[in-house]
Structure formats: structure tokens, C-alpha cells
Design brief:
It holds the Pfam family PPR_3. It is built from 40 helices and no strands. The chain is mainly alpha-helical and 883 residues long. It has a domain of 115 residues. Helix 9 runs antiparallel to helix 10, helix 9 runs parallel beside helix 11 and helix 17 runs antiparallel to helix 18. The longest helix is centred in the N-terminal third of the chain and has 29 residues. The radius of gyration is 43 Å and the shape is elongated.
Length: 883
């Protein structure tokens, strides 16, 4: 019976139970030579415990109950229950997968405790009793398993039992298996308590490698950067000698394996890969040292540290997820080491399919590089695996995940033919499955990756091919093939492709088809935010008439859908796409439509949809839309939006809606755009700039005026019809110069600023004295530029100054003199272009024009009348520096 009870099979358990029954039957018929003892029943209980069969714990319990019943009926002390018999049944429950196993084991333990407390010293529970129940709770999924285990552990002291390392180890295991956030701390506390007892003289309580491994195990089950770092330090101290601050314990294979796992599970993927890989190298170095030492002393004992493929695969998987630039090289280096170990005789370390899948995953996630084509390399690995598996290496036979990784590599490669190659791979999967060379056919996941590859391809046939693949999936699903029915990710890939291919009409139809499927009960087709956003973006990018209104219609459907399905709602992108569309339109009502969409989003935000908080960029988009449309009220509308921003910040807690320089420049640009039709534009723009200057002077760096700020206000004055425009432009230029002198590093008075002042003067249309003043200002600025080493005139400057000389009502002599001066300097600088020459023709009289074109260089000019002279007839040297 003893021999049969050690075999781990149902047949062995049945055999032991039959032998037990035979002995009992013999004894009952009067065979005095035969005696049944508790040990016989324990053999039967242990046999069922080791069998691994479903219901084995229940059968062990029945045998024990029958023994107790017989003992009470016959008063036979030889079959009286003992601590050992109870421990055997508890052990059977601790190995059981029954959800109530831990509670059953605890019930047995409490029977022991109650019997002992009632005076039965034969049934005193021991350390194994408690350790067994703690092991049962370690496997349990009960919520109260931690509290129950701690209560049982405290009971050991109340029973006057000496501390036992088995119970402490079992408690640590329970903490580790529980996986609670404080599990590592509690496992460490148990370890510290064991060390205290050991230092106090209880030599049996010295923590072993098992205890340290349980701490590592608890760290591996609570993934965090802190857990990974603690596991790394713990392993390092296990390796160090005591005299160097290490623990008085030697790490074994499990120590390294669990430490590697703790590092690999860290959410910081880059750190996880680095730490796990470093510990793998430690494991390899330790295994080499042990192997060399065993050979030196000719030891036959099994080594404490050996290499296992699981540790290698864990590290490969961690590296494959880290997205580090060198991840492909690192996984290939590990694969080469594994192959070398196999070549040296350790066949168990030959890379298996999981190893290669990790390599393929690393390639799929790798950043595109010029020196390597990971899509090609992935495909070559796949071909190698297929070839070798057909030659008999079943451990590397590709599976569905293998093909998915290769498809992902193709999808992310960006190669022109990547989609075509992905198409071939999926067809190859279908063929391999039909020929029984692949266990799984391509499913919805593979087809979705293929659709994404087509969506990214930019191919002119991408949209048509995506629709063909979608139809193919419908057909396969309709004939009963499992797991190929399109889901929302599948549809989203097609919508993405249609959007990029400018097939907005078909995209809209597909979206409404998804809505119809969902309403008919197909919850896998339920559209999400991406689905609606794809169609909205498709219309927003379209130049077709009415596409903005159609994008708004899709947004309306989106909002209606949200009312019925609160889990799916629009995000800010849906609104931003439409606003951007209108901001690019030249239609006069387009900016109003953009502002309407913005106000809709703000209304939703105010009503509680906090994820729809508007951004400053949305406001600038609408402001710029008014500017690009040359709207007559662009400035006033932009300033109204500025007031709305401040209201949202003040009254609705939009703390990020803080006006800054770029936002203010959008308002200034709107005033600059509308200045020709808005008499107050220049004044309002300058007032806003003055507010910026005051805020900056008071310490608000976010409103620091820059060169563009001053330039936009100058532009507003240049288009203004105010009689004060020239003088205001000059004053603004001087303020700009002062700001630069006072240390505003974002302001640089450049040629364009000076030129804008001249342009402002050129377009003064007012009383004669105002125009004379404007001419004097223009001449003064022009002279400053001629004498400046930093802001020399450009072709634009010369053209505007000559135009000012011709337009402003000054004396003919002053005008002619200034024109001649400017033209000659322009020619000397080699900056004569069509713009300057055209302005010269408009400003100079025939007499002045002829005088400017006289001289040896123009002796071959047959007709020097304005209308007959082309710039190309003039010396090239005059225009040598024109671009």
C-alpha cells in the first residue's frame, strides 16, 4: 500500500483503496493475524491526494470520515484519528481546485484544535497542520484569505507551539499568491521576524532561500517600478557574501527566475527590459561558475542554479515590449546565445516558438531605420520557422500569434509594397490552414491588421481593397467560420482607409451601416469615437461643396448616439476637425459656422461634459478663420472670443485658458485684416498691444510682446483710413525700438517693421498737411535705413518708398529728388525687381523716368517711354541680388 500510495494516478489510488478494503474485510471475518491501523487509511488518503483527479479531496475526506465512524463504532484504538491523518486530508484539500478547499481544510484544522483544547493530546495540531491550511489559502480566491490566514498564524502562539519555518514560509506564500498591494511589505515582515528569532538563538528559524524566494515572488506579483527595484536589490544582496553586506543565503535557479519576472513585469517598459536582461546575464554567469566548479570537484549533485528557457523567454518578451531603438539587436543576441547553449548540449535552451514570437514582436514595434528593414527580416524568420517545422521541429511551428506579429511589422514598416505583402501573408495563412499545416485560420485580428496596412499604404487601390477584404470577412462569417465577423476595430480600419482615400461618401455609408448593425443587436459593431471622428475628418478634409455641413450632420448623429449610449461620446477632435475645415474656407459664413461649432462644444462643457473643455488652439483657429476670410468684423469677433476665454477661465475653472502672446497675435492679426473696413481697428489693436506691454512690465511673461505683435499692429495702421496713421505708426516703431533696448529678447526691429511704417505713410489719403507730414516721416525712416548696418532697405522698402513719393501730395521737386535717390540706391544695391520698377513707373513723371534711364549703360535702349521699357532691358547688375 505504501508503494502504491506514492504513485500519482487514479489507478494507484483505487488500488490502495481496494487493498484497504481487503484488509478490513479479512479482519471482519475473523482473521486475527491482520490488523488495520490508522496508517492504512492514511495510505489511501495520500494516494487520492496525489492522484490529481477531480473529486480526490472529497474522496480522501470520505475515507477519513469512514475511519472515524468505524473507530467510534468499534472502539478500536488502532484506527483512531491522529494529527497525521488530519494533516493528510488537509493536504488533499490544499491540492484541490475546489473553490471551498481552503475552508474545508480550515474546518479540519479547527476539529483538531477543538479536540486538543478538550484534552485529546493525540490530536494536537502541529506546524504542518497550520502550514497545510495556509497553503490552501494561498491557492484560494476568497476575499478574506489574507485575514483568515493571519488569524490562523496568530493561533499558533495561543496553542503554545514553538515557531516553525514551515508555517512562516506558508504565510509568505499566501501573501505572495494574494497579490495585494502590501504583499511584499508583509512578506518582508515575515522574513524580518524569522531573522529576529534566528538572532535570538532559534537556529531552526534561519531564513532559507525558499523564504527569500517568496519575497521575490510577492514582488513579481505586484508589478511596479518600486517592486522591480526591490527585487533587483534583494537578488544582489543574496549574491553578495555576508562580509560585503549580503544575506547569509545562496540564490538558486528560482531566485533568478522570479527576480527576472519581477523586473519584466514593471510598467516602465524600458527599465523592465534593462533590469530583466541584466539579471538574465547574472543567471548565466552564475550557472557557468557552478558548472565549472562542479567539474573541478567532479560533483554528481544537481546544481543549485541552472538555465531554463522560461527565464530567457521572459526577458525576450520584456525587450520586445520596450520599443527601445536597440531592441531588435538585443533579442537577436539572446537568441544567438540560446542557440549556442543548445549547440553545446543544452537542448532545452533551443529557442522555441515563444522565443521567436518575442523576436517578431520586437521587430513589429521597432522604429523604422534606414539600415534595417524589419518587415523583410520578420518575413524571412517566418519562412524559416515554416521550413524547419515541416522538417520535424514541432516546437517552432508558427501559430496565429506568429503571423500577427509579422503582419504588424508589415503594417508599421511604411514600405510601399507592405500592404501587398501583408495580403499575401493572410492568403498564405488561409492556404496553410486548409492543408492542415496551421492550427488556426486567420481571424478578425489578422484581417484587421491587414486592413490597417492598406489604410497606411497610400495606395490608390487601398479603399477598394479594404472593401473587398471586408466583403470576404462577411462571406466567411456567413458560412459559419468562427471569429472572422468584423468588429468595431475592423470597421475603424476601413473607415480610416476611406477617410485617407477621400472616399467620404462611402465612409459615411459604412458608419451608418455600423449604427444599423448595432441597433439590430450586433454589439461588436458598436461605433466608437474613432468611427465618428474618421467620417467627420473625411468631410472636414474634403473640398467638396457642403462638406462642412455634412461633417456637422455626422457630429449631430454622434451626439444623438451618445444620448442612448453614454459610454461613447465625442471628444474635442470631432469639433476641432470641423472648425479647422471652416477656418480654411473663403466663404463669408465659414467663420460663423466655426464659431457656432465652438460654442456648441462650450455649451456641452458647461453642462457637465468636462472632457470637452476647449483649448486655446480652438479659439485661435476660429479667430484665424475670420482673418483668412477677410471678414469686415474679424477684429471685433476675435476680441469677443478673447473675452469669452477670460470668462471661461474666471467662471468655469478653465485654468489652462490663459491668454498668451500667440493668442493675442491672432486677435491682432484679425484687426490687421479688417483694418481697411474698420475705422477703429488700428486703435483697438494698439490698445491690446499696450495691455500686453503693461502685463509684461508687471511680470507676466506669457504676454510678452514679440516682433510679430508689433508688426501686426503696424500692418493694421498701414491699412487704416485714419488721418493719424503715419504718426501713430512712427510712434509704435519707436516703442518697438525701446522694447528692444530695454531687453525684450523676443522683439527685433527688422527691415519689415521700418518698411511697414513707410507703407503706412504711402497710403495716407488726407489733408495736404497730413500727407506732407507722412512724406517727411517716410523720408526720415528711409534715411535711417540707408544709414543702418542692421536694417538695410529691401526691394519692398524701395518700392513702397517710391510709391509714397508718387502718391503723397508734396512738391514735384521733393518727390523727384526722393525718387531719384531711392532708385539709384536700389540699383546700386542690385535690388531692382518688377515690384520696384512697377512702382517707379507709377510714381515718376516721364521726365524723371527718362532721366533715370539715361547714361552709357542704356545707350542701346531704343524707346525709353514708360510703357515700352521692360526690366529685362535694364542692366543685370541693377537686379543682381534679387531672388
Amino acid at each position: 500500500m505504501a508503494a502504491w500510495s506514492k504513485r500519482k494516478s487514479v489507478d494507484a489510488a483505487i488500488t490502495v483503496e481496494r487493498l484497504l478494503k481487503r484488509v478490513v474485510d479479512d479482519m471482519q471475518v475473523g482473521n486475527s493475524v491482520v490488523q488495520v491501523t490508522t496508517r492504512f487509511y492514511v495510505y489511501a488518503i495520500d494516494a487520492w491526494s496525489r492522484s490529481g483527479a477531480e473529486g480526490s479531496a472529497q474522496r480522501a475526506q470520505q475515507i477519513h470520515d469512514a475511519m472515524i465512524q468505524t473507530c467510534h463504532a468499534t472502539d478500536n484504538p488502532l484506527i483512531a484519528p491522529s494529527t497525521i491523518s488530519y494533516n493528510s486530508v488537509m493536504n488533499a484539500w490544499s491540492k484541490s481546485n475546489d473553490p471551498t478547499a481552503a475552508e474545508k481544510a480550515e474546518d479540519l484544522l479547527m476539529e483538531l484544535v477543538d479536540s486538543y483544547r478538550n484534552g485529546n493530546n493525540e490530536l494536537k495540531p502541529d506546524a504542518i497542520s497550520f502550514a497545510t491550511v495556509l497553503h490552501a489559502y494561498a491557492k484560494s480566491q476568497l476575499r478574506e484569505r489574507v485575514a483568515r490566514s493571519e488569524s490562523l498564524f496568530e493561533m499558533i502562539d495561543t496553542l503554545g507551539m514553538p515557531p516553525n519555518p514551515y508555517a512562516y514560509s506558508a504565510l509568505q506564500k499566501m501573501y505572495a499568491r494574494a497579490g495585494t498591494h502590501d504583499a511584499p511589505q508583509k512578506a518582508f515582515e515575515v522574513l524580518d521576524r524569522m531573522n529576529e528569532l534566528y538572532r535570538a538563538g532559534n537556529l531552526s528559524m534561519k531564513p532559507s532561500t525558499i523564504n527569500y524566494n517568496e519575497v521575490l515572488n510577492s514582488l513579481s506579483r505586484t508589478p511596479s517600478r518600486k517592486s522591480a527595484e526591490m527585487a533587483d536589490r534583494l537578488l544582489m544582496k543574496m549574491e553578495l557574501p555576508v562580509e560585503q553586506g549580503g544575506y547569509d543565503v545562496e540564490p538558486d535557479r528560482l531566485s533568478y527566475a522570479v527576480a527576472i519576472l519581477a523586473c519584466a513585469r514593471c510598467p516602465d517598459e524600458a527599465f523592465a527590459a534593462q533590469a530583466a536582461e541584466a539579471n538574465l546575464r547574472k543567471l548565466e554567469a552564475r550557472a557557468r561558475r557552478e558548472d565549472q566548479r562542479r567539474r573541478e570537484i567532479s560533483s554528481a549533485a544537481p546544481p543549485a542554479v541552472t538555465l531554463d528557457i522560461e527565464s530567457f523567454n521572459v526577458v525576450l518578451t520584456a525587450i520586445s515590449k520596450c520599443r527601445e531603438p536597440d531592441a531588435p539587436e538585443r533579442v537577436l543576441d539572446i537568441i544567438q546565445r540560446m542557440e549556442q547553449y543548445a549547440a553545446d548540449g543544452n537542448e532545452s535552451l533551443r529557442p522555441n516558438l515563444r522565443s521567436w514570437n518575442a523576436v517578431l514582436n520586437a521587430f513589429a514595434r521597432a522604429t523604422k531605420r534606414q539600415d534595417r528593414n524589419f518587415a523583410d527580416e520578420s518575413q524571412r524568420i517566418l519562412e524559416r520557422l515554416l521550413f524547419q517545422s515541416k522538417k520535424g521541429q514541432s516546437s517552432i511551428k508558427p501559430n496565429a500569434y506568429t503571423f500577427a506579429a509579422v503582419l504588424n511589422a508589415q503594417q508599421r514598416s511604411g514600405d510601399p509594397d507592405a500592404a501587398e505583402r501583408a495580403d499575401c501573408i493572410v492568403r498564405q495563412m488561409e492556404e496553410l490552414y486548409e492543408s492542415d499545416d496551421l492550427e488556426a485560420r486567420p481571424d478578425v485580428f489578422h484581417y484587421t491588421i491587414l486592413l490597417s496596412a492598406w489604410a497606411r499604404s497610400g495606395s490608390p487601390r487601398a479603399a477598394d481593397r479594404c472593401l473587398q477584404i471586408l466583403t470576404h470577412m462577411y462571406e466567411r462569417s456567413n458560412v459559419g467560420i468562427d471569429n472572422v465577423k468584423p468588429n468595431v476595430r475592423t470597421y475603424n480600419a476601413v473607415l480610416d482607409c476611406l477617410s485617407k482615400s477621400r472616399k467620404e461618401d462611402i465612409a459615411e455609408q459604412l458608419l451608418y451601416h455600423m449604427l444599423d448593425l448595432f441597433r439590430r443587436g450586433d454589439h461588436a459593431s458598436k461605433p466608437d469615437a474613432f468611427s465618428f471622428n474618421c467620417v467627420i475628418q473625411a468631410f472636414a478634409k474634403s473640398g467638396a461643396r457642403g462638406s462642412g455641413k455634412r461633417a456637422e450632420a455626422v457630429l449631430d448623429r454622434f451626439l444623438e448616439f451618445q444620448e442612448e449610449n453614454p459610454s461613447v461620446g465625442p471628444d474635442t477632435r470631432a469639433f476641432r476637425y470641423i472648425m479647422s475645415h471652416y477656418s480654411r474656407s473663403s466663404n463669408m459664413d465659414a467663420p460663423y459656422r466655426a464659431e457656432y461649432v465652438l460654442n456648441r462644444m462650450i455649451s456641452l462643457y458647461k453642462s457637465g461634459h468636462r472632457h470637452l473643455e476647449p483649448s486655446l488652439s480652438m479659439f485661435t483657429t476660429v479667430m484665424d478663420g475670420y482673418s483668412y476670410a477677410n471678414h469686415p468684423d474679424a477684429g471685433n469677433n476675435a476680441e469677443r472670443l478673447l473675452r469669452l476665454i477670460r470668462e471661461l477661465q474666471r467662471s468655469y475653472g478653465c485654468s489652462h485658458l490663459v491668454a498668451h502672446t500667440a493668442l493675442m497675435n491672432s486677435v491682432l492679426m484679425a484687426y490687421a485684416t479688417s483694418a481697411a473696413k474698420d475705422e477703429q481697428a488700428g486703435f483697438r489693436a494698439e490698445e491690446l498691444l499696450l495691455d500686453m506691454e503693461r502685463s509684461y512690465a508687471a511680470g507676466d511673461a506669457s504676454l510678452q510682446p514679440d516682433t510679430k505683435s508689433y508688426g501686426l499692429v503696424l500692418s493694421a495702421w498701414s491699412k487704416s483710413c485714419s488721418s493719424h496713421k503715419a504718426r501713430r505708426a512712427l510712434q509704435l516703431l519707436r516703442r518697438m525700438e525701446q522694447a528692444q533696448r530695454e531687453g525684450n529678447d523676443r522683439v527685433k526691429v527688422d527691415e519689415h517693421a521700418y518698411s511697414l511704417v513707410i507703407n503706412t505713410c504711402a497710403f495716407c489719403n488726407d489733408a495736404v498737411d497730413v500727407e506732407i507730414d507722412a512724406f517727411e516721416i517716410a523720408s526720415k525712416i528711409f534715411d535711417e535705413m540707408l544709414s543702418s548696418s542692421d536694417n538695410s532697405p529691401s526691394s519692398l522698402t524701395y518700392g513702397w518708398f517710391i510709391q509714397a513719393c508718387g502718391r503723397l501730395r508734396v512738391s514735384k521737386d521733393d518727390s523727384a529728388k526722393a525718387i531719384k535717390k531711392a532708385f539709384k540706391r536700389c540699383c546700386d544695391d542690385g535690388l531692382l525687381n518688377d515690384f520696384v520698377f512697377h512702382r517707379l513707373k507709377g510714381a515718376a513723371s516721364d521726365e524723371v523716368f527718362l532721366s533715370l534711364l539715361s547714361g552709357p549703360a542704356l545707350s542701346n535702349l531704343k524707346d525709353a517711354r514708360k510703357q515700352n521699357v521692360s526690366i529685362h532691358q535694364l542692366p543685370f547688375d541693377w537686379r543682381r541680388n534679387c531672388k
